[in-house]
């Protein structure tokens, strides 16, 4: 489970805008949001940075 879409919408970013910020294709963002692609640690860190959050909030469920 991830919250990429939730955080992206909070930042009022399109998939394309987010993709350009971190240097990937828009389709990559779509696949990540739909849990069809496991991003590398580097990509996870870049996503968290761009979305102004941390890895735990973005990718791990809260207990």
From TrEMBL:
Listed Pfam families: HTH_3
InterPro entries in the cross-refs: Cro/C1-type_HTH, Lambda_DNA-bd_dom_sf
PROSITE patterns: HTH_CROC1
Record domain HTH cro/C1-type: where: 4-58
DNA-binding is among the record's keywords: yes
Keywords of this entry: DNA-binding
Name this polypeptide is given: Transcriptional regulator
């Amino acid at each position: 489970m991830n919250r990429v879409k939730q955080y992206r919408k909070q930042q009022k970013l399109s998939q394309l805008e987010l993709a350009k910020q971190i240097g990937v294709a828009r389709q990559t963002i779509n696949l990540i949001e739909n849990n069809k692609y496991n991003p590398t640690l580097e990509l996870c860190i870049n996503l968290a940075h761009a979305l102004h959050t941390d890895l735990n909030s973005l990718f791990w469920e809260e207990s």
